[in-house]
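Reply to dn_fold:

You asked what the input looked like. This is it:
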Amino acid sequence: MSPIRSTATTLAAGTVLSLSLLLGCSSQNTSVTGTPAAETTPSAIASASASPSATTASPAASETASAVVPATTAGLSSPVQPEAPANLVIADSVNAAGTIRARSAAGQGELLMIASSSEERGHLEASSNYGLEGEQTYQADYSIVYRSGKQDQVLLKLPAFLFVRPSDQVLEFDTVRFKDAEVYLLAPQYKSGHGLVAYAFAMERGSGEVFPLSFKQGEIVHDTLVYSELPPFPANQNEQLVVHSPEGAGTDPELKPRVYDLDLEKRLFIAR
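and this is what came back:
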């Protein structure tokens, strides 16, 4: 992530919105540390330097982002190389590492999306497929963790991740309940014109284990789920995940929704 120069300076080479699918997850040891969130004023941004990498209702949905101090743990890492109008983003301020962008209760703990580096907060200079003029932009290295007590388990890393939201409310993971597991979906980017891109996680009821899920169609495995920006949203029907595909310009709409079977042992949703 390049240093932010001023509220009037365009991010000429920022990281772009995530519309392409993640290509893979590889296990590695990692740590996430945070300090109490502190937002600088625009006059102080010129000297700030950021890191080079950047539905079930709950009371948390009305919160604004806050900071926490995660513990060291091991997890998965996936590169994010999205497409994008980086020149539409105007930087406004910098938040400290540890800022929470999404959270949901999960079993005896909670799922969190946390900025593991300094977070650049800005706004869109003009309306586009990704959001309306003036809406909030967020860019940082993010980690999705499962927190139980004082222990954090890193499930996924999203380096140099940029997304747009209408406000700074803390996001909520959508919950889809199955007989043997709770499934949680998180789509940070709320619109794109090409479908929502969601990351999926499961909590197995018997063991209480929490882990990321992938999606298999034929011989291809994807780390994200893409679905329509309009309802109906992904749901459990007869112990199968039913997903309506996005309809983009120049493409023929799918007449039937996609249907996935959940395989907890393989940590996959497998398309029929």
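DSSP finds no helices and 18 strands in the chain.
Hope that clears it up.
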